[in-house]
Amino acid sequence: MNLYQQPERHLVQFNAGKCIREGNMLKPDLRKGMIYMDQGNDQLMHFYWKERKYNSEPEDDLIIFPDEAELQKVPECTTGRVLVLKYKTSNQRLFFWMQKLDSDLDDTVIQRVNQLINDPSSALDDTQMDLDSSDHSIEMELMQRLMGSAGEGNLTEENLMELFQQAGSLR
């Protein structure tokens, strides 16, 4: 393995954890994760989720056809940044939570994901959006908030469970 190997580049990539559905409740999967999209050799648009461990393989590889799904913010989430990938042709919903503390580019990321879903030919412009954060102190602060750390302005476990319960009622 070459230590100077360039990291993989994707059409869009950003740090996000998965949410695990338990009945009508959602809870955060606390692993450090990443969502990214690429156009495969099959010329289809792939939506991936994987752990951010060195050399990890994607845990999820979803093929999304044009206008089949949409990534949206969960509007009921007022204390965090939860996203839902909603399929238009079924009741399937996949929930994710943003793992980068700075929310400035959230709307841009959502717009880019939806652009790639609805217009896969836009991938030909070779535009890449990498929001992968190497700032682990930011990730740790967010993890502490999500874990219910005590302190002013932090998200408690009770608030988080309420948030995920509300997000689960979006079906």
TrEMBL record:
Residues 6-120 form the Pru domain. The keyword Nucleus applies. It is found in: Cytoplasm; Nucleus. This is Proteasome complex subunit Rpn13 ubiquitin receptor-domain-containing protein. One of its GO terms (cellular component) is cytoplasm. It comes from the Eukaryota. InterPro entries: Rpn13/ADRM1 (IPR006773), Rpn13/ADRM1_Pru (IPR044868), Rpn13/ADRM1_Pru_sf (IPR038633). One of its GO terms (molecular function) is endopeptidase activator activity.
